[in-house]
Amino acid sequence: MVTRKKSNSKPLQILFVASEVDGLVKTGGLADVAKSLPAALKELGHDVRVVMPLYRKVPNGTEAVELLDTELLVSTQPQAVSYKVRQLHNGDVPVYTVDAPQYFDRPELYAENNEGYRDNGERFAFFSAAALDMCEKLGFKPDVVHCNDWHTGLVPFLLKTRYADDAFYADMQSVITIHNAVFKGTFNYDQYSLIPELIQKRYLQLEDGAANISMLKAGVAFADKVNAVSPNYAKELLTELGSHGMATDFQHRSDVLYGIVNGCDYGDWSPETDPYIKQHFKANKVSLARGKKACKRDLQQQVNLPQDDVPVYGMVCRLTEQKGIQYLLPVLRDFLVNDVQIVLVGSGDPKLASALREISEAFADKFAFIEAYDNPLAHCVEAGSDFFLMPSQFEPCGLNQIYSLAYGTLPIVRGVGGLKDTVIDYDATPQFATGFVFDAPTPEGLLIKMQRSLLLYCQRPQEFKRLQLNAMACRFEWKDAAEQYLRMYSGEEESVLEKKQIECA
User: Fold this and answer.
1) How far is the CA of 303 from the CAs of 269, 312, 366, in angstroms?
2) For site-directed labelling of 376, which of 80, 243, 292, 457 has its Cα 20 to 30 A away?
3) Rounded Cα–Cα distance for residues 173 and 214 (Å)
4) What does pTM read for this prediction?
């Protein structure tokens, strides 16, 4: 029998530690969470504050109100490291920015020309230390310090080592959320001079025997709670294949490992209000049919495809193997012999881009490849497509499949991570289906589902419309996700291990 803490109605003080926050600076999905989850927690009545580095790209960052001008003291260092804390706001949520020009006043956040900054380990070791150092100096004592990915992995470690006997920090609970375990933040010992306590923890090394330590391993080992951004991804982290070499680390923490699906910001992604799409529409047959038709014609016009009444397959992604481009490329020509159109928007790997460009030139009337990051066009792809392709190799949560559901665009996804948690396969559960799911990591597995979707569209149009309405009825609200996080903080949420036991009972 599991003993749980009683629900605590007292508002919590929460420090959300992240390397990027949408609305200020963004490179990926982590920034979306760092914007939306704190806002949802605040709406539920909690005192939530975010801390992030003050990058050069943060608009008007150096003009923000200065709250603190101080130094980070390290006993083994001859000189302290100076930094300031400036306060911005992201909506109603205060954002503390750590202003240390020697670390963060650079053209980009993490890398230039696809090459990471050589001192990234030192940069984010400093950020982790400063995020805690500032708390006492500002008089903010959080109940929960919520960290995110490797960039903040040393925060839980410092709470359990440097601050273990400090009364101010004694009762702080640390949580680390895993958005993508493939990035481990592994650096040589010489980058951790600001965290001398870390060098003694040899078990935090990766298994290559080199003189380096993974920040993510440190976070997973020392956090009070560990969670992934979907229940299925949390389970995958317990396996060798799904953990990217850290299965043992996650298995050791399986009693405090949780999985919570990200929410969706429907203020930005709704066919009823989207400012980027040609015609707004609602989840009823008449409005849906008219709106999708207008949006399809607009999308076709934007990407120079014939305005034919054929099924359109959309895809918006980074061009990486993680996103499953290697499954699509071998079958793309075979699928394009059908009366279909495909619109793919994305940038990344030059080799993948070149291969896609070659096929688009050969099928210019059927396949449009736009090599770019284009947010307005991404909205038009979601609204104007009939199906959305996400054949990911792995996908911790995924957002585009959730956006697609909102627009009545049926996702075709691989059954991994959050994709499996958010899309219901037509072949497995036709009554409640919202899309198509394949499991095999092969081009053939993807092709079979694409052909199945084409048959549904052409031969059973009323059934296709029913699935569209099923999809649009799905809601992944940040308020619901925030309530799950609160239950996790309090010990009321079930861990992956406990859920396994219940499922097997």
Assistant:
1) 21, 12, 10
2) 457
3) 21
4) 0.91
